[in-house]
Design a protein that fits this description.
The chain has eight helices and 19 strands. By secondary structure, the protein is α+β, with helices and mostly antiparallel strands. The longest helix has 18 residues. A hairpin with a 4-residue loop joins β11 and β12.
């Protein structure tokens, strides 16, 4: 196991800056997930960690050693790719053993490591097959096994589940987390899927346009998002964000859609200051004096998600238990708990 430290990582391609000074410290045995929309810089950050890209400035340290100028083979890392990157002409055993053979490891040690990793992943019966004879989930296990046999200081995962179907993604997600905890290897995992991020990470790095918008545990990010971007990105359905102005010394706000809300704790700000009031769909309470015109109903069995608009046209999503009104109806709601307040100009949490 080893620590990972990224300090002041910047990256530009010509005149286009894609990373703007990323600082991140990953503890021994920790699983940190980098999550964000396409083009936010998350894969570039992972490639810099792996040595596949050189940073424009900044340093990469693994186990306290500066590896910024080292080639990938010299960093003692293992990477699991989105497309598996298996050799089609080789057996599964040879795919998993290839890196060890290149390093000149004794044959018996190679066999021990491959067979141990295969048992751990439940693919020991597949070692004589070739990749084309395997399912997508089995191929992903082989790719993970190839990483495990190297016994690296650091695991890097580059969206490894994106090619799998929904059911298999859930299964492999649980398997990756179980294996990472069992092996105790420091890991960096990149994904655009917030569900993967929330369930896999000890901590999350939420990226936005080349910057780390927030670095915290999944529940800290869910319950106290640092800005409106994080609030709108983490959570499904996403948080409702409503225009408002502060009043009464920061103890409440007047909503642009009509009506007002009270905060559990006063927020710092001046009277009349434009703010954004956020509330997650599951915290909107049916019944009240704020009418929502229902435009779309998504019945999910145990719960229903309603999409509609408030007076004035602002979007409102409501998640309720059981069944719900049909589209075209109006449903009165109230906003009474778990409110988040953000500055309207900067988007930062107040």
């Amino acid at each position: 196991m080893a620590t990972l430290e990224l300090s002041g990582i910047r990256k530009s391609f010509g005149n286009i800056a894609v990373l703007h000074g990323i600082d991140l410290a990953v503890a021994e045995g920790e699983m940190v997930v980098i999550v964000g929309a396409s083009g936010c810089g998350k894969s570039t950050l992972l490639r810099i960690t792996a040595g596949l890209e050189m940073p424009t400035s900044g340093t990469v340290r693994i186990g306290g050693r500066d590896v910024t100028a080292l080639e990938p083979p010299d960093r003692d890392i293992a990477m699991v790719f989105q497309n598996y990157a298996l050799y089609p002409h080789m057996t599964i055993f040879d795919n998993m053993a290839y890196g060890l053979k290149i390093r000149g490891m004794p044959r018996e040690e190679i066999r021990r490591r491959v067979e141990e990793a295969a048992r751990l992943l439940g693919i020991d019966a597949l070692l004589t097959r070739r990749p084309r004879q395997l399912s997508g989930g089995q191929r992903q296990r082989v790719a993970m096994g190839r990483a495990i046999v190297r016994e690296p200081k650091l695991f890097l995962f580059d969206e490894p589940l994106s090619n799998l179907d929904a059911k298999l993604r859930v299964q492999m997600r649980a398997e990756i987390r179980r294996l990472q905890r069992r092996l105790g290897v420091t890991s960096l995992f990149v994904t655009h899927d917030q569900v993967e991020a929330m369930t896999l990470g000890d901590r999350l790095v939420v990226m936005n346009q080349g910057r780390a918008a927030q670095i915290a545990t999944p529940m800290e990010i869910f319950t106290a998002p640092a800005d409106t971007y994080v609030a709108g990105f983490i959570g499904s359905p996403t948080m409702n964000l409503l225009r408002a102005t502060l009043q009464d010394g920061g103890t409440g706000a007047a909503l642009a859609a009509g009506g007002s809300v009270r905060f559990a704790q006063p927020v710092a700000g001046r009277a009349g200051q434009p703010v954004i009031v956020g509330i997650r769909p599951e915290h909107v309470t049916p019944g009240g004096d704020m009418p929502v015109a229902i435009e779309l109903v998504e019945p999910l069995g145990s719960e229903t998600v309603l999409h509609g608009t408030l007076p004035g046209g602002e979007a409102m999503t409501v998640r309720i238990q059981g069944t719900a009104p049909v589209a075209g109806d109006a449903m009165p709601v109230s906003l009474t708990q778990h409110l988040h307040v953000f500055d309207a100009e900067s988007g930062r949490r107040l």
